[in-house]
Amino acid sequence: MNGFDELGFAKIDTQRAERRGFPEAIFCEGKTPEQVAQIVKKMDEGENHILATRASAETFTAVHKLTPAAEYHESARLIVVRKEEIIPDPDRIILVMTAGTSDIPVAEEAAITSELMGHKVERIFDVGVAGIHRLLAQQEKVQAANVLVVCAGMEGALASVVGGLVSKPVIAVPTSVGYGASWNGLAALLGMLNSCAAGVSVVNIDNGFGAGRLAGIINSMR
Amino acid sequence: MNGFDELGFAKIDTQRAERRGFPEAIFCEGKTPEQVAQIVKKMDEGENHILATRASAETFTAVHKLTPAAEYHESARLIVVRKEEIIPDPDRIILVMTAGTSDIPVAEEAAITSELMGHKVERIFDVGVAGIHRLLAQQEKVQAANVLVVCAGMEGALASVVGGLVSKPVIAVPTSVGYGASWNGLAALLGMLNSCAAGVSVVNIDNGFGAGRLAGIINSMR
Amino acid sequence: MNGFDELGFAKIDTQRAERRGFPEAIFCEGKTPEQVAQIVKKMDEGENHILATRASAETFTAVHKLTPAAEYHESARLIVVRKEEIIPDPDRIILVMTAGTSDIPVAEEAAITSELMGHKVERIFDVGVAGIHRLLAQQEKVQAANVLVVCAGMEGALASVVGGLVSKPVIAVPTSVGYGASWNGLAALLGMLNSCAAGVSVVNIDNGFGAGRLAGIINSMR
Amino acid sequence: MNGFDELGFAKIDTQRAERRGFPEAIFCEGKTPEQVAQIVKKMDEGENHILATRASAETFTAVHKLTPAAEYHESARLIVVRKEEIIPDPDRIILVMTAGTSDIPVAEEAAITSELMGHKVERIFDVGVAGIHRLLAQQEKVQAANVLVVCAGMEGALASVVGGLVSKPVIAVPTSVGYGASWNGLAALLGMLNSCAAGVSVVNIDNGFGAGRLAGIINSMR
Amino acid sequence: MNGFDELGFAKIDTQRAERRGFPEAIFCEGKTPEQVAQIVKKMDEGENHILATRASAETFTAVHKLTPAAEYHESARLIVVRKEEIIPDPDRIILVMTAGTSDIPVAEEAAITSELMGHKVERIFDVGVAGIHRLLAQQEKVQAANVLVVCAGMEGALASVVGGLVSKPVIAVPTSVGYGASWNGLAALLGMLNSCAAGVSVVNIDNGFGAGRLAGIINSMR
Amino acid sequence: MNGFDELGFAKIDTQRAERRGFPEAIFCEGKTPEQVAQIVKKMDEGENHILATRASAETFTAVHKLTPAAEYHESARLIVVRKEEIIPDPDRIILVMTAGTSDIPVAEEAAITSELMGHKVERIFDVGVAGIHRLLAQQEKVQAANVLVVCAGMEGALASVVGGLVSKPVIAVPTSVGYGASWNGLAALLGMLNSCAAGVSVVNIDNGFGAGRLAGIINSMR
Amino acid sequence: MNGFDELGFAKIDTQRAERRGFPEAIFCEGKTPEQVAQIVKKMDEGENHILATRASAETFTAVHKLTPAAEYHESARLIVVRKEEIIPDPDRIILVMTAGTSDIPVAEEAAITSELMGHKVERIFDVGVAGIHRLLAQQEKVQAANVLVVCAGMEGALASVVGGLVSKPVIAVPTSVGYGASWNGLAALLGMLNSCAAGVSVVNIDNGFGAGRLAGIINSMR
Amino acid sequence: MNGFDELGFAKIDTQRAERRGFPEAIFCEGKTPEQVAQIVKKMDEGENHILATRASAETFTAVHKLTPAAEYHESARLIVVRKEEIIPDPDRIILVMTAGTSDIPVAEEAAITSELMGHKVERIFDVGVAGIHRLLAQQEKVQAANVLVVCAGMEGALASVVGGLVSKPVIAVPTSVGYGASWNGLAALLGMLNSCAAGVSVVNIDNGFGAGRLAGIINSMR
């Protein structure tokens, strides 16, 4: 009625599914496992996929007890409850890339989110700019993509280079990978914000979910 | 005599109760459980409620041994020793709000503090600005409040929106909820300080106690 | 041949026009007026619109001498040399919004950039969140937009609120408008990065050009 | 109708006067003198006082041409257009204090704002904590105040000391006065946020207007 | 010979004892317990007191095995090996003060260091500025001191107030006590650096040892 | 009577001269030339030297008109009004050092302050650590000093090296000299705070006055 | 073929060995032990030494199972797989120095890296600037070095002093050793970047590997 | 004798020329034109080239009056006094590169410094990573270089890409070119420090002189 279901400690946004083409995701950090489990259970009454991000194994255990259909993607720390699948358009590819192996969990969070929204996703991992030939060898895939998600820590330069190669939107995700003066993703974040390549925009550090969702929104435009 | 009781490692401010209408609260972090227990025991000789903030379970155990009347609010990490209750004025409501479920512990610290001071408190949780209809559905309660406490992490925008809706004082509490470039509450703090809504002032990150106390002080004015 | 024209102090990227659907723009800060004038003159041999950002009046004078067709948008500090116009699609609207009057120069930089790329642009100015009814009064226009650009300084909260209202991509542009703890746009930048509304991504502080260009790229997808 | 008057570059919030007991103030920075003059002229059709903050002499000249009744407070950089005066309640005093002489312009911005709202204001200047006897000599005035506004730069410690002396709300205004590691008000801001005195809340650096307005709102409660 | 003993992983400065009137202290963090134990054992061949700071219980166990005369001050995390005592001058008092109970471990590090150097030390704990009467009640002791060490976290304002009361040197030690925007001592550090009281200088956050040593050096001057 | 003279915009601390052995200095930034001139004139009725820091030439002109005995030290930006001179003790030398030529204005502010307090001051300029032989050539003077003031920008390392050479107190003054990542004195400030040499304490960036005053206080101890 | 071996989660850069004279090192943080073990095993098919940095004991266990020839340097957290040794040139010495004992792990990371590249390395530990005679006693070794690596935490001043003594390149490695305002290496980093000694350049905080590698590259030039 | 000439306000390091193969350069900021002129005149008695960095036109005028042989490089803000030229080795090339046109002044400071030291320098300007083909077109020159200096502002990514292409040392110079979240070179600095390409080290922001000098030192090794 009001556009949300009231749980007392949470208001589940039922209006958002229509509004945004996707149900409200649950951000697990700061919520108890029991709170998450209650929210998932309530959402499971609906018809949309459910996605819980930053979920610990302990949270998954609590969720799984109330909602046995829930699956857990450990490295991406995602809980997923799947409903009816959408057949993706094979010609509109979202390409998710990483600079290094350590960026993969964030990239998977993005990729799975886009896939849940019904998009075809391809992955290219470990093509950081310090070995630019590894990236250039993938030019064909890069040019074929409709939307690109670039996850990189340390200096975050991959977003600029990719942004200069393509004429499609590039969503840059700084990751907290690195050490010393990477300051938990600050260096990558600043690098990406200062990219002089057109078409690049940035989401929060390690926010694979946000990137995957935005990629899906853009890829649905026609 | 001097306006304080000397414990060696602490000086309990006996003058403050008259001065501020409320006994000195105990900030537990950095004190040993034994130190807190001694302070509570000494204060318990007086007639005022006692409040210990940021209390661990271990600290509560030590306090409870010496002062069996003590209660523990786990999620808000508060220890309370109640004395004679004040009947609140039902027409002067302090409204405590949160942007998300994860902000509730800080909000409860504020709400319980105000209640101990003898005020009527109402709570509205999980009305962050990304789903503004959830907030607008509560307009009646919002307009009825005499003082408002708004707890929000991430971008902290709820304080600005609420500040623009009411003509009463809004106490904004940034919380350390968030990730990446929220920098443990910095983003919310800066957002709230820069609010262009009149009537908004800010307390320290996660300082529910300070907000609850200030709300009580303002709500007592007539 | 190499995909660029060599001027010694600059390499004009002739390959980018094909690659990105738009010629390389000229960032004037740090270049002498004479350097900018030479670059514009060289680019004027081509068939694409030319755009020079952050241009001072002095730079425009130098450019105008060599390229009389150049126009100057003073508040947006843009120099434009127009070639054959593209007829915009009237059903695909890019909506450029500001929180305050002071954000208009950045918004105009975005709007003019998108218009030059052949898109229809609408503007809504001064709808900051401290008076949310001003925004809600524009709901129809907001819902009709295909891509949204939100320019805001101070706490930057408008991006979150707009992001929660629509199911289209929102490009957030923090501006350096504000004072004190806005730290020249830092507060707005952090607020926007931490937005919990899906579909929001962020460009550099005051980077109207980048936002306008990305809006155009996304609006061209079909 | 919509609750605002549309000027194109600005939306004057006509609903706010009822909503907040005070007309929308104009923040002049980032607006051209002509824009401010237009806004003042439009607002002058109403019945409320008008206040323009951060106004340069040049802006005042433009305003004065269209609205001859406008006055200019140079050190506080305020433009005021007075309408019918409210008789202040002599028993409810807002006390505005400064740590040093250099903080006076910010303090005057606060004091004049409160006075325009119809409150009685007293001033105590130059009572910084490095000479605590200067403050203690004013104890009577300090205790008599209903709401206190404390403006201080450098280490900002005055807010904590005053907060510990009174049982009324203290609004702390960090100022950008200082040098070196004061970082334009950051040191004072952090000092005030970390005040362990109850009843203290903080507004943005140099935000005398916001403090004066909040003081007026609180002082009107009964 | 060279003024140091070579241990391979460390060079013990034997020249410093003459040079500075005190042996080199050992900073334990980053050294293994075994390394510390070896250094203490080597130093024990000399005639000076030995002081090891930031020592864990585990480190003390290793030291005690090789040097049974070693004592451990747990809360101050100091290991001490005492040699022949110096009789302190009873008229030249170093006063060590804290704003709160949580600052005591740092204060003890300072006090014990000064005592080891042969000075008379007095302590006043928990006299933070939010209850200024607690400090003013100690005026006699404060005025009698020859050198003052002030340890405070949060806003660190005690140093300014004390600095304004006395005409002796005040050594300010910011502590990492606090939460939220205290940023692990940054707020206190900035507050102390910006103190407008003359005679105040600052050492590193939590550096009780450095403060105690400097107090001893100054107190030895005649 | 109250220990201060009231000027309305300032309270001149007449109690401080007795309390601190030196009259209150005037910090000119943020005060109008007329305000400074009034304060100097009022103070000139007393018997102590007067010192105004951060004084512009314009301020001096205003002061000189009302107080013809005032002198101006241009590079140190000091205004001085001298009263009866104190004969310095020739055996207790305050040594003021700089790392570079650009640090001299700050050093002169310190040196003149100490001299006004009646101390003998020596100067050694341009002995930064990148040419350590220049410093070592001054060993005799360095060892002869009773108190040392070390002014350095950039990396500020001179304080650590000097601190390791002597057994007397070293007052470190970070200066804003440098560029790039010196961040206006931040690098030097952090370097000095982290000095592992005992006996080093730090004052605010460019605070030559504070250093000179503290040096005088310490040098007066016996 | 493409210049890399594809493992799916990683692309091993086979072209880099030729290109950089050294195989790609493996940065272990953020990779699972199994991923590292797979990468090492794949690289072991080649003829170059293998180096894995920031390796936990758990990671070594996984690597050792698949590649028994692997050795572990615990304090430096390095895993090494040695192939045919290169005989170092005894006249071209890389000198690795530390300011303190706590900097040794980083220094060893640098030293072992250079040794693996076939260079002669000497070590001087614990010669921080607060006891400059310890450094000056090593002048002969310092002057004999061809390339110098200086590891220092806290204020990082050793790099400046060494840079002033020699006419060879100095690679400065800030370490995260320190406390309080060292901010995990920030103070040392800024100090080193601001060094006014010529010939000094800086790598990331704690990046012993990068320093050792660059030292080897420079030492190979002729 | 002491290894320096004493001018009172400066100590000219005569020992450094032998020690470092190059005379002391003069950093002009913070020195008066007259001071610089005196220093240059004194140095002109020797046989080495003289270099004054960050020199204003006004400083050059003062220098030129006393030393007519001085030349001025306006965009690089360098004053040079040439003595006998060294014939460069044509096979050992220092390559100076920039990401954009705005970085050229810093690059020229580096290039001229290296040339004065007797090295052959080549320049490639405006090859930022957002148009990577412009860089790849220069591969031959890049591979031929013996030492590389890379000047870049904004995200500073060029250093990483170049570092990955070559097996020679890369000296990265962050420039203050950029806007918004480039924070005057901070973004580029962090990006370069976090480069995962081996062989890259970093100097201070805009420190073209330091880079040019280090390049010369390395290029002289054999």
Explain what the structure shows.
Eight copies of one chain form a homooctamer. The mean pLDDT of chain A is 92. Chain A is built from nine helices and eleven strands. Chain A is globular and about 50 Å long. The two termini of chain A are 31 Å apart. Chain A has 222 residues and is an alpha/beta fold. Helix content of chain A is 36%, strand content 20%. Chains in contact: A-B, A-C, A-G, A-H, B-C, B-D, B-E, C-D, C-H, D-E, D-F, E-F, E-G, F-G, F-H, G-H. The F-H interface holds F 100-104, 125-127, 131, 133-134, 137, 153, 177, 179-182 and H 2-4, 8-11, 13, 15-16, 24, 27, 29-31, 35, 54, 174, 176, 185-186, 189, 204-207.
Quickly list its features.
homooctamer; 222 residues; alpha/beta; four-stranded mixed β-sheet
Task: Give a summary of the structure in a few sentences.
8 copies of one chain form a homooctamer. Chain A is α/β, with parallel strands linked by helices.
Chain-wise SSE layout:
Eight copies of one chain form a homooctamer.
Chain A: E1 4-6, E2 11-13, H1 15-20, E3 26-27, H2 33-43, E4 50-53, H3 57-66, E5 71-73, E6 78-81, E7 93-98, H4 104-116, E8 120-124, H5 132-136, H6 139-144, E9 147-152, H7 158-165, E10 170-174, H8 186-193, E11 200-202, H9 208-219
Parallel strand pairs in A: 3-4, 7-8, 7-9, 9-10, 10-11
Antiparallel strand pairs in A: 1-2, 4-6, 5-6
Helix pairs in contact in A: 2-3, 4-9
